[in-house]
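Record type: monomer structure entry
Structure origin: computed from sequence
Chain ID: A
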Amino acid sequence: MGNFEIKTAEYLLQIKAIKLQPSNPFTWASGWKSPIYCDNRKTLSFPEVRSYIRNSFSDLINDLYPQAEVIAGVATGAIAHGVLIADKLGLPFIYVRSGAKEHGLGNQIEGYFEEGQKIVVIEDLISTGGSSLSAVNALKESHCDVLGMVAIFTYEFKKAADAFASGNCRLNTLSNYSVLVETALKTGFIGQKEVETLKNWRLDPANWGTK
């Protein structure tokens, strides 16, 4: 467990970008019942947290992908973070929509890039991985060399891990669900009795709360 994983988790909990409510579950847009809700857009409203995430992303990219030529953000959640990182690294920025526009030029990828350029994709949250990998595939179909994806947080679903493996896309994150639960327990956001509930949810999130 890296120090940046713990620190990121602490920040997300402190600013309530991540809320844990095992006894009063949230309902996701997918219909899933969940003891956790993550809204990483809140990190942009806190300068200290925003800067920490920008710097941690930049350090991670410099370490893993020193050959990166372009930073790409996944719309809409990762656009702002992507711009901050690209500015920090002195690299061009583009972003990828969920689908092509139905007017104008009909672009799915916005900004200037060239075929063959080495690109690192920025994402704010990884759940099942579907929308994130859709952006990666759009870049690959435009003949970009996608080096990998970096994200703020992942729920660590097996479905996502399998999807990234099948899509041949490397994924690294600033923090993850396992670290978050451990950090939340140590810092008093949850008690020991709630840990088991949180761990069980991640094993079968689609059916949790319906049994």
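Annotation 1: Strands lie at 18-20, 26-27, 33-34, 36-38, 70-74, 93-96, 109-110, 118-126, 145-154, 171-176.
Annotation 2: The chain has one domain: 3-203.
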